[in-house]
Design brief:
alpha+beta, 4-stranded antiparallel sheet, 17 strands, elongated, disordered C terminus
Length: 374
């Protein structure tokens, strides 16, 4: 049978799949299949996402064979991330270490944003890009959110700019970090070699605020919970390094200290454990957690078994399987606070980078520190 072409101008804004369903009289499943098979266009351009929002006056065109059984494309599973949440507007994933969030100027293929785009498009042909909201360093793992449209990504970025999302990291840092709770506040600038550093000149840098709490401490490392009030590039790594307690495994900031502590995994000891934000469309408060990476847990076990004053031996753990959905609200691996230990002497700044003009020092509120609102 010949194909049927149906066309309508939207009378009011809304989701395009609902307009197509009203136009064709098909079931929701068959309507989704029309999008997967390239049967729908908006103002002359193909539409692959059934949840795309349209405006009043948009021209919607559907070309299909009523006798044909169109099928939805099966979802694409990726070994590069674990899906935490998805709806028609956004995708939340758990990123493993070792993969770039987005391409650099070298235009690397197979970055996380590419993998998420392939998942959203249900195949290698990218008809619709996903919107980048924020990033994690290559060797950092944890929770990331992407918008399915640029409008959704922009709305989420506005929340980050207003410091509204809840962002909690877990990290192993060098030395016995004292005091047990505090805040780093400085302005971060970019050096010629692209390293970040603190400057006393507020006009040259961007305000960066990092809150931390020590969960466990030994003579050679501290396990800390870090809450970001701002989200500057390398913020946690720079603040900790300038305080003399770099993140273990860091090859860029205070490598001389970051190589100590017995950390052997070829990654940063930094994990984005919690991300909370408001859904830009529904207004619902969303909160997602990522379990402690297996190499983190293995390192802690090895440290507890090591004789006092001795660095833990190399602990190897298989990475958690990717692709399986994670449970929301899963409890994080945490540890009781330990007694305070001697703080090591501060080392000179790493060679090759400009010395911090005003290195941040932790400050402690005598009252209970208020956490940033989610």
């Amino acid at each position: 049978m010949a194909e049927t072409v149906q066309e309508i101008r939207a009378s009011e804004p809304g989701r395009i799949d609902r307009t197509v369903q009203e136009l064709t009289g098909l079931t929701r499943a068959r309507v989704r299949a029309l999008f997967d098979n390239g049967c729908v266009s908006r103002n002359g351009k193909p539409v692959a996402e059934a949840g795309e929002l349209i405006r009043a006056g948009d021209r919607i065109r559907v070309k299909f064979d009523p006798e044909r059984r169109y099928r939805e494309r099966p979802p694409v599973r990726s070994s590069k991330f674990r899906l935490l949440f998805e709806d028609e507007h956004l995708v939340v994933v758990d990123k493993p270490s070792g993969i770039l969030s987005v391409p650099t100027e070298k235009r690397e293929p197979n970055t996380l944003v590419h993998e998420v785009a392939k998942y959203v498009n249900r195949g290698p042909i990218i008809r619709r890009k996903v919107g980048i909201v924020h990033r994690l360093d290559r060797d950092t793992s944890g929770v990331l959110v992407f918008g399915k449209t640029e409008g959704i990504a922009r709305a989420l970025k506005d929340q980050f700019a207003a410091r509204k999302p809840e962002r909690v990291y877990l990290a192993f840092v060098a030395g016995a970090l004292e005091p047990a709770e505090g805040t780093f506040r400085s302005h971060l600038a970019t050096a010629p070699d692209l390293d970040q550093y603190s400057t006393a000149d507020a006009t040259r840098g961007k305000l960066a605020v990092t809150h931390y709490r020590v969960l466990e401490r030994t003579d050679v490392w501290s396990f800390v919970e870090v809450t970001l009030e701002t989200g500057r590039r390398n913020q946690i790594r720079v603040h900790m390094a300038e305080a003399g307690h770099p993140v273990l495994g860091d090859t860029r900031y205070r490598k001389d200290l970051a190589s100590r502590g017995g950390w052997r995994p070829r990654r940063l000891a930094l994990h984005a454990a919690v991300l909370g934000f408001t859904h830009p469309i529904t207004g619902e408060k969303l909160r997602f957690e990522s379990a402690l990476p297996p190499e983190f847990a293995a390192f802690r076990r090895a440290a507890r078994q090591a004789p006092a004053g001795e660095e833990p031996r190399a602990a190897h753990a298989k990475p958690a399987p990717q692709g399986a959905p994670a449970k929301r609200g899963a409890p994080r691996d945490s540890a009781p606070r330990d007694s305070a230990h001697r703080k090591p002497a501060r080392q000179p700044a790493r060679r090759g980078s400009p010395p911090p003009e005003s290195a941040p020092r932790p400050t402690v509120d005598p009252k209970k520190r208020k956490r940033p609102k989610a």
